[in-house]
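Field reference: sequence -> structure
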Amino acid sequence: ALLTPLQDHPQEQNLYCTGCGKGPFVRVGGLVSHVEKECLILNTNMIETMREEKMEFSQALTALTKEPLKNNYGGYMPENANRGLPDATWESTGSIPAPFTIEQSQFPSLGESSSTTLQPTKEKKENSWNKGKNLFPDAPAAQRPTLEQLKQVTAPSARATFDLMSDLDPKHPDFNVARFYSEYTQKFNCRMGRCGKAFKTAKGFIAHLTSEAHSASRYRCPYCLNTFGSLASITQHVESNSNKCKIRDTEQYNSYMDQLLASMVNVKDRHADGTVRYETSKTFGKGPSPGSDLVEQKENPKVNGGDPYTGMQIHW
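Structure field:
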């Protein structure tokens, strides 16, 4: 649902980086771009890790309550956006359609003609599978696997992930920047597709390979379904209204931004003119994230093998 019409140009924000303190940034996209390229404390990997932890917690809560997860935008994030359009419904039901079955009596005999028209059968034969003995009467009934179990068994192995990586990727173990240096031009030449760009320094060339120009990450806007190669570009897109995309006017915008940036920036009501007002989280990037091992160790010292009541007098 769309909210009341807003101004096309949002008001300037007053945002500061919670990692290094740099600011103010007048746009959320500017803050995210700083985190991607400049900040020595925060980075996009931290945002993506915290986003995954928050989604895992939500999925675990869904499994306990048996209630569908509303406003779930995990299908639009990099790990899923590359697999095509997400499901039409955003709620994860975990249900699997019943398998297609065909009765044995519907198969034609070997002597029949090759006509594809099914011939009516005079009598229905019994299913011989039902005549067998129950060898394990006490065994529990078979359960269909959950959606999470299916994801685990179909996830690519470490070897498969290695094989899918290109040696043009700076993260690849066999990546060698010297292979791209030309003695003739005395520059590093990009061989990605038809790019052909050249750089004087190895640092500039590697920055180009890891930039949005050749990024493997893809964020998809849940409103207009356009894809973007970096967290900064998708943030700039959803932050600024356009004639084709009005996600900022929807009621789900707050939830989407919270998941996209892993609560680094919170939507705090609106300005007097109706435009969105943002506020940076005061705790983001400071200390362990929710659900991490450090939090568990702090809340339950027995995780480390210690006794939280050592040296204390306990009165019953």
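Note: The radius of gyration is 28 Å.
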